C-alpha cells in the first residue's frame, strides 16, 4: 500500500561526536498511558516550519510531552526514502528540538534510536505540512514517509496534512493549520480513551489525516469527518519538453479525475476531514494473492 525502503538501523552513523558509534536501540510498542503521551513530532517541511511549530505548541498545550525530531531542511516529496548516506549531521538547537540533515524517515530512525533510546514514544505525529497528501500524493509524501518509518518500528503514527485540492496562498494554509491541530488533539484523545490497556492503534496500522482549507481565510470549520481510503488516482501529470541541448524542461499540471466514492479526494473536496488507515508494507489482500497464485500456476524457473 505504501512505498518503502528498509535498511538496517545500524546503517545510521552520526556525525555528532558524542553520539558517533552509539548502537541504535530497538523500539518496542508501548501500552497507551492513561495520561499525556510522549510524542515524537516530525515533518517533511523542516524542523522550523510553521506547521511543526504550531503542532508542538498545540500538542504541548494539550498536556503531551512533545519532542521535535525533524529534517534540518525542506524534504517535501521524499516519500519513504531513508539512510541513503553513510553519515548524517544532527543538530540540537534548543531543548526538545533535534534537527536531522536527512529525510523524515532518517529523522524518525534517529529519534527512535537515540532521542527515545530504551523506551519508544507512545506516538509519532508527522506534520502538519503544507498541502494535502491524498491519492497518489500520499505515496510520495515525506509527511507520510515519516509516519511509515515509525510503523515499521512498531510505533503508532499519524500523518497530518493541511490543504485543499486547489492552491491557496501560504498565509491561508497556515491559518488552516490551527483547526487541523485542534482536530489532531481531539483525535489523539479519542485514541487514548479507546485504547484502555492496549496500544493506541492496531499493530502496524497508522492514520493519514487530511484536513481541508475551509473559508477564504482558512479559519473555517470542516463540514465533518470521514473514514476514507487512498483514492487510487494520481492527478499530478508531468510534461517534458526537449530543449534541444540534452536537457528537458519539466512541467506538472493537476488533472483531477472523478473522485472515488468513499476516498480521501472526495472527502477533502467536500470540506470534510479525511482519515485513512495506512500500513508500512506493500501487501494487498487475500483476493489479490489468489490472483497471483493463478497467474503463476504451472510456471517453472
Question: What does this protein look like?
Answer:
The chain has 301 residues and is of the alpha/beta class. Helix content is 28%, strand content 23%. The protein has a 9-stranded mixed sheet. A two-stranded antiparallel ribbon has the order 9-10. α5 links the parallel β6 and β7. α1 runs parallel beside α5 and α2 runs parallel beside α4. It is globular and about 50 Å long. The N terminus is likely disordered.
What is the gyration radius calculated from CA atoms? 20 Å
Strand tally is 11
Q: Give the amount of beta strand, in percent.
A: 15-25%
Sequence stretches where pLDDT stays below 50 over 5 or more residues: 1-27
Helix-residue proportion: 25-40%
Report the span from N to C terminus. Answer: 28 Å
- Average pLDDT over all residues: 85
- What is the 3D form? globular
Structural class: alpha/beta
Q: State the strand order across the main sheet.
A: 3-4-2-1-5-6-7-11-8
Provide a count of the helices. Answer: 7
Query: What is the H/E string?
Result: EHEEEHEHHEHEEEEHEH
Major sheet attributes: 9 strands, mixed
What is shown here, in short?
This protein has 301 residues and is α/β, with parallel strands linked by helices. It is built from 7 helices and 11 strands.
Features:
301 residues, nine-stranded mixed beta sheet, two-stranded antiparallel sheet, globular, disordered N terminus
Amino acid at each position: 500500500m505504501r512505498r518503502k525502503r528498509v535498511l538496517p538501523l545500524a546503517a545510521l552513523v552520526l556525525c555528532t561526536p558524542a553520539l558517533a558509534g552509539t548502537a541504535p536501540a530497538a523500539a518496542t510498542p508501548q501500552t497507551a498511558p492513561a495520561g499525556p503521551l510522549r510524542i515524537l513530532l516530525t515533518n517533511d517541511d523542516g524542523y522550523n516550519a510553521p506547521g511543526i511549530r504550531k503542532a508542538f505548541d498545540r500538542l504541548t498545550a494539550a498536556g503531551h510531552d512533545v519532542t521535535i525530531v525533524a529534517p534540518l531542511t525542506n524534504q517535501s516529496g521524499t516519500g519513504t526514502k531513508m539512510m541513503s548516506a553513510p553519515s548524517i549531521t544532527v543538530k540540537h538547537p534548543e531543548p526538545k528540538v533535534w534537527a536531522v540533515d536527512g529525510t523524515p524517515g532518517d529523522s524518525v530512525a534517529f529519534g527512535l534510536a537515540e532521542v527515545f533510546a530504551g523506551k519508544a514514544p507512545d506516538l509519532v505525529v508527522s506534520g502538519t505540512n503544507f498541502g494535502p497528501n491524498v491519492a497518489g500524493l500520499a505515496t510520495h509524501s515525506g509527511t507520510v514517509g515519516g509516519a511509515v518509518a515509525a510503523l515499521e518500528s512498531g510505533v503508532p503514527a499519524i500523518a497530518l496534512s493541511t490543504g485543499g485540492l486547489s492552491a491557496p496562498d501560504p498565509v491561508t494554509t497556515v491559518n488552516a493549520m490551527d483547526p487541523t491541530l485542534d482536530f489532531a488533539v481531539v483525535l489523539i484523545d479519542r485514541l487514548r480513551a479507546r485504547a484502555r490497556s492496549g496500544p493506541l492503534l492496531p499493530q502496524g496500522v497508522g492514520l493519514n489525516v487530511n484536513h481541508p482549507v475551509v473559508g477564504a481565510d482558512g479559519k473555517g470549520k470542516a463540514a465533518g469527518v470521514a473514514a476514507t481510503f487512498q483514492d487510487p488516482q494520481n492527478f499530478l501529470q508531468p510534461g517534458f519538453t526537449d530543449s534541444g541541448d540534452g536537457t528537458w524542461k519539466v512541467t506538472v499540471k493537476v488533472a483531477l479525475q472523478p473522485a472515488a466514492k468513499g476516498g480521501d479526494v472526495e472527502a477533502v473536496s467536500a470540506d470534510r476531514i479525511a482519515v485513512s488507515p495506512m500500513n508500512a508494507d506493500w501487501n494487498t489482500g487475500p483476493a489479490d494473492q489468489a490472483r497471483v497464485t493463478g497467474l503463476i500456476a504451472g510456471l517453472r524457473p
